[in-house]
Every structure is written in structure tokens, then in C-alpha cells.
Amino acid sequence: MKTGHIFFISGVAGAWKWTVIKKILEKNITNFELALSCKTRDFREGEKHGIDYNKLSISEFKKSIENGDFLEYNFVHNQNYYGTRYTDVIENGIEKGKIILKEMDILALPKLMSDRHDLKNNYTYIFLDLPIAKIKDRMLDRWDCVEWKDFENRLISARKESSLKNLADHVINADQSAEQVFEEVFNIISKKL
User: Fold this and answer.
1) For 40, 42, 67, 185, which has the most beta carbons within 10 A of its beta carbon?
2) Angstrom distance (rounded) from CA 36 to CA 44
């Protein structure tokens, strides 16, 4: 069986990550599968466990770290843990020939690159870049209200994330329509396969 491939989709807050991933999945391409993140953050309105992500308590997440369950993880926006279970993308993913789509924080990429350099040929990392000045507008478009602390944390994270974008295989300007960003991402994926 041919080994599959992982497409990590990353970017600052409001860079169309989920919109792009959902549009790709809507194409119903054989063997494409979404690997859900594990997160400690509370659900937003309309989000559901096992559909949007797997909700873990902080103690459950830390136990999974101790057990070595995660391929990668990070403490995001100085608020919550996000991570990718090894079994979801490797054992139940690419080892079964699947093409995995996975949102991943670029701050976790350096550790993945150093700890699992053996996997480098099995993934493509795409970073959606958005100017810092545009983040607040996108956040306001997504939610009715944005708490100042949450906005500040996302700006701090965005600055750190943008400083690492040179590690990505591809950087896409997300300061354009969601459709344009999707087309560029899908073009990268299509050429890789």
C-alpha cells in the first residue's frame, strides 16, 4: 500500500484556515480525511466534540503528553493546549494510504522537525499569512464580540507565528478572499499528489 501524505494547514488568527479545510473536504476526494485536533479550549457556538475537535481537560491533555500520545502539541495564545495525536495522522492515517488534512500551529513545527525528521517526506506545511493589522477585523467578522485579552493574546501569537513562516513549505497571502486562498492551497495539494 502506498504511504499517504499529511497537509498541515497553519496561519494566524483569521487567515481562513478552517474555511479552506472545509472547502477541500467538500470536494469529497477519495482518501482525503480530516484529523481532528485535541484542544482544551471551550467550544464556540455550534461546535461539537468529535466533529470540530476533541475536547480534553487540561489534566487529560497533560496525561496524553506524558504518555507520548501527541505527534505535536502547543500551548496556544497563552490560553489552551492544542495537539495532534500520533495515531490519528500516522497509524490510522498515512500508514493506511490516506491524505490527511490537519490544522497545526506553526509554533509546534520546530519541535516536530527536530524530533521527527524521519517524517519530513510525509508532510507538506502550508502557512496562511495575514498582516497583523487585519487580524482584528477578521476576528470581529467571525464573532460578535472579542474580549480585549483574547485579541491581545492572538496578536502576540501572530507575531511569533509570522516569525517562523520561513519554516513552512509554502506561504500564502491570506489577505485576499477565502476563495482565492482556497484556490492557492488546493493548487499546492493537487500538484503534490
Assistant:
1) 185
2) 16
pLDDT tens column, 108-131: 999 999 999 899 999 999 999 988
Q: Which of 62, 101, 66 is nearest to 80 (CA)?
A: 62
- The whole-number pLDDT of residue 144 equals 46
User: Each residue of 20-69: pLDDT tens digit?
Assistant: 999 999 988 888 999 999 999 888 888 888 888 899 999 999 999 999 99
Q: For residues 60 and 40, what is the distance between their CA atoms, to the nearest angstrom?
A: 9
Which residues does 80 contact at the CB level (< 8 Å), separation at least 6? 39, 40, 41
- Assign 11 to helix, strand or coil: strand
Strand partners, 124: 7
